């Protein structure tokens, strides 16, 4: 594995008087599987909003593949190779599943796509995800788990080198969790670094090579899954004093 | 251009309509029909223009009258400055340029905010422009301006016939632009913005840039619709040029016809426009506004996807 | 021509009319500022209020303020009805933005044109003994047709503000936009709260309308001039801040008065809309609003 593909240094974010993130340092190596955990309200979603550009951090910097993306708008970051999926799926409701994928292929990945074969590329992604059969269905009518898959498919279609998966498995059955996990692992095998935010511990522990723990806007622990599980600070953060 | 059968049918239909229009001018002599047709076609261009930002991109413009009025006043001002020498095509081009710039500037100021603020700002803009024109005595101010009908009407029998053909051409042009947009990469980006702007941004769509393009295009098209207006009515004052009736029609027609597809505004304008002409002749013109208002509210509440949406639903049900 | 005389009269007139503007805008401050419902038809209802005042004043000789207060409950129920339709058609299905705006746009048209069809485009006035009187404080004129609306408006605005900040239902209204769930947990039904708030907002237009026709003659399209004013005032004051709204109303009243006096009344409509555009471009959260 080469050097870090993403370096988050000293990032802070306030909302009025509320400090959501305080001086957070996180790095992700190329092709790495990083788990990001922490109790509710610890700042995980704020952090990935800052990484993806939905929010601009107040202090600190974010560097992706050597470029400072701290002040870049989200669409530029996605074009550079940072993709994210949303916790609550946000499909393009007037479009079919296939048409949903055209958007990232035609925009985020435009320079990396075969302009004449966008539909074929979209179908290929759908095949990977397991939604090929639903290609022409309207995206608004999908089941929960299929919507989550569509979210991931859209992020995949952007041809990222770093994917942030925001609680893609919340509320799913055990079998469905395994489906999503398999998709993410397959993606990682192709060299894409993945940051996984999850509350489902068995998924995080099985998936991650390294885990970062946030609590109340600060990083309180970092290490392998085994180390994190034994960390007393982490236990305290989740269970209280 | 001729990629498939649908294209062939489209261009064929357009050509047929154009020829029909020309034939019309040879056969029908009653000037009223040209006046009515012009009004309906003008409304169609406005509806198509509105729909680019409204239906395709999801931002509601309440100030359509502002763009239309400035288009009209561009013609008036140029006519006062240069007399008859410029000709309508130049005035239309000038109006397109100016109103396009206005769309761009307004968009730049307000499209970065929530859609609601953009909508209110468009209303504000229309009234500001109306006030400016009320105070601009060069173009007639509040008392209005009279426009003399030029002598030349090319090979047509009368000036109104020529205006009718001009507006028909402009309408067909607007339809072509709209259709091309609908099926293009740009149009798909706009649809993504309309469906979910945040998700679109994260899918790599440069939302601000596309919204600005959309607003500029809409502004230009509305200016184009307004440019020949002074020659159509021969007397223009700010109250009529910036009339809220123009604005409500521009919204109601696409919403009634259906906003997602380029043909929706055409259907809406033809239907509503025709009914309005009938009402004006048979009852009163005030009733028109009431009619449009009621239709707008009814369709929005019960059939927000418009007529096109209803047709799609019926088709989907039959397919099951 | 900058005499103290002219300046002070412009200032005082501006403040008086600004107070009235607050009464027009408070309903919008509730529906738009608190409930995020873009009720463009709000000023149209004010005009309806004016017409009701005119009818009862010219037929039965009743005092316009009295009419405004008595008609308020009827306006309340109309408001509740309209909210129900809006809720069923839009809020429930999550379509608020595009269609909701156009819905109220349509309602505005229906109201205005109905007035034209029934009563024509002539200007209507009310008459009351005190309206003709003028007081004078030195060189400053205080026409009662401005002072009385100012006083009534102030009382109404204060009353509504106290209600919103002191009573349970009032605070529920202030809370419903920000935290539906907390409200539900507190035992209040968000839909009923919003319904009540909307009804209250429309009820205020009854009083505002009677004040409007006291200040000057009214015709059906007068509401349109107030769209810009009311929205400018709510946006400038800051969404969600009633005191901010009052300050904005006074500011706009004064600026309009100065522009009218020194540049001419035909520029007045541009003032509020210009202020609106400026606020949106520079500081959309307004003077005192939540961001």
> Biggest protein-protein interface?
B-C, 42 and 42 residues
Q: How is the CATH topology of chain C named?
A: ABC transporter involved in vitamin B12 uptake, BtuC
Query: What is the CA-CA span between the terminal residues of chain A?
Result: 39 Å
Cross-sheet strand order for the largest sheet of chain C: 1-2
The H-and-E topology of chain A, N to C, reads as EEEHEEHEHHHEHEHEEHH
Secondary-structure element order of chain C, N to C: HHHHEEHHHHHHH
CATH superfamily of the domain at 4-90 and 160-239 in chain A: P-loop containing nucleotide triphosphate hydrolases
What is the level-2 CATH architecture name of chain C? Orthogonal Bundle
Q: Rg of chain A from C-alpha positions?
A: 18 Å
Mean pLDDT of chain C: 86
Structural class by SSE content of chain A: alpha/beta
Biggest sheet of chain C, in brief?
2 strands, antiparallel
Helix content percent band of chain C? over 70%
CATH 2nd-level architecture of the domain at 4-90 and 160-239 in chain A: 3-Layer(aba) Sandwich
Structural class of chain C: mainly alpha
Shape of chain A: globular
User: Mind describing the biggest β-sheet of chain A?
Assistant: 6 strands, mixed
> Which spans of chain A of ≥5 residues are poorly predicted at pLDDT below 50?
none
What does the model show?
The complex is a heterotrimer of chains A (241), B (320) and C (291). By secondary structure, chain A is of the alpha/beta class. Chain A has a domain at 4-90 and 160-239: P-loop containing nucleotide triphosphate hydrolases (Rossmann fold). Chain A contains nine helices and ten strands. Chain A has helices at 44-52, 74-80, 97-106, 118-129, 144-157, 174-189, 201-207, 225-230, 232-239; strands spanning 4-15, 18-29, 33-37, 59-64, 67-68, 82-85, 162-166, 193-197, 210-215, 218-223. Chain A is globular. Chain B has helices at 5-27, 31-54, 64-82, 88-110, 115-134, 159-182, 185-195, 197-202, 207-226, 229-233, 238-241, 244-257, 263-282, 286-302, 306-319; strands spanning 145-146, 235-236. The mean pLDDT of chain B is 88. Chain C has a single domain, classed as ABC transporter involved in vitamin B12 uptake, BtuC. Chains in contact: A-B, B-C. At the B-C interface, α5, α12 and α14 of B face α3, α4, α9 and α11 of C.
